[in-house]
Amino acid sequence: MGSIDRYIFRTTLASFALVLVSLTGVIWITQALRGIDLMTSQGQTILTFLGVTSLVIPALVLIISPIALMIAISHTLNKLATDSEIIVMNAAGFSPFRLFRPFLYATCVVALLVAFIAAYLAPDGMRRLKQWDAEITADVLANILQPGRFAQLDQNLTIRIRERQPGGLLKGIFIDDRRDPKERVSIVADHGTVLKSGDGSFLVLEDGNLQRFEAGKRDPALVAFGRYAFDMSKFSKQGHDVLLGIRERYLWELIDPAEDDPVYKQIPGQFRAELHDRFMSPIYPFAFAALTFAFLGAPRTTRQSRNFSIGGSIIAVFGLRMIGFACSVMAVKSPIAPVVQYLMLVAAIAVSIWVIIDGIVLEPPAALLEAINKSNARLSRLFGRPATA
Question: Are 337 and 330 within 8 A, CB to CB?
Fold first, then answer.
């Protein structure tokens, strides 16, 4: 690349990174707030909270990247036009397609990033998120034990807690254990916490008493304790076997799913739709880049308005993506929908390249501009009258 190409390439990628980080951060915060109960009701640490919620970031980047690229190209072209650099490069012999080359290089980088995320990183993050979430939310100690309710964990085991406080502290614990036919154990404790280790999960009770009713004895044995560990390992191992959904599958798993896969047998259409979405993800950056440059890349003087071009590029990109979403939904039941989506993307890229090569300036008809100017003039006269003294 020449010096001009490197300058445009760096500017575009820097703008892309800034927009991508900003949009991803905002959307991630809105998604992360939904899981704030991990720290409050379930007693998880801030590191667990951040780890679980950050696994969704690759999936967000996959959707946001083409939009961030469009914004970055628009910003770079607007900067070049404002400084009259496009006019100067055009006068120096740069054709519009030659100017498009560094933007194409930047698009290739973004497309490679999107392809890697779509094939591996996003499904891997969603897979880890589902497994991690299952380990947390399927834990009996954290979810079935609800304040004020008697939870029957086994046929002859009942537990009740009075309240759950921040930090995983359980108050007012009652346990009725009749699993051993030779004895019945009743435990009452002031408070307790859940302790997980390599040996299993334990409900550590503090400041309470234990009553043991043995068969053949009239009086129970009463023991007061300061600290007592009640083994709950049997009930905290649930939820580790997670059934992976469509979005948790790697690209090669979608291409060649197992014949005995229960999810594939149930919803083969969604496998097809997701597979084509993964294939088309790296194509969208090229379509968005070509459309944006077709509207904004033509040389204009600083006196020529670029509002229509900016609005037209936004409408074109938005319309293309909405049609793509519609085709993805219809692809579940119709195998023709992905073909329509591929043709739509190819047509958008081909028409944009034709506009760029021919140097066509996309502007509204003169009659439309005149009508808009007259309407603005009427509004100015209506609302811009000077106030009387």
Answer: yes
Q: Which residue has the higher pLDDT, 34 or 214?
A: 214
Both structure tokens of 236: 């905290």
- C-alpha 109/C-alpha 282 separation (Å) is 10
Residue 282 above 80 pLDDT? yes
Mean predicted lDDT score pLDDT of the chain: 81
Alpha-carbon distances, residue 93 vs 87, 297, 304 (angstroms): 10, 15, 21
**Where do the domains of the chain lie?**
3-137+243-381, 142-235
Q: Rounded to an integer, what distance in angstroms lies between the CA atom of residue 137 and that of residue 385?
A: 64
DSSP assignments along 314-366, one per residue: HHHHHHHHHHHHHHHHHTTT-THHHHHHHHHHHHHHHHHHHHHHHT------H
**CA trace torsion 121, 127, 128, 133 (10° rounding):** 140
C-alpha triplet 329, 332, 336: angle, nearest 5°: 90
Which residue's entry shows tokens 């801030």?
Answer: 46
What does the pLDDT look like over 224-249, one tens digit per residue?
888 888 877 666 554 445 677 788 88
Please give the structure tokens belonging to residue 167: 């930090």
Picking from 293, 299, 312, the residue whose alpha carbon sits closest to that of residue 363 is 312
Average pLDDT estimate for 155-162: 83
Longest dimension (CA), the chain: 106
Rg (CA), the chain: 31
pTM for this one?
Answer: 0.71
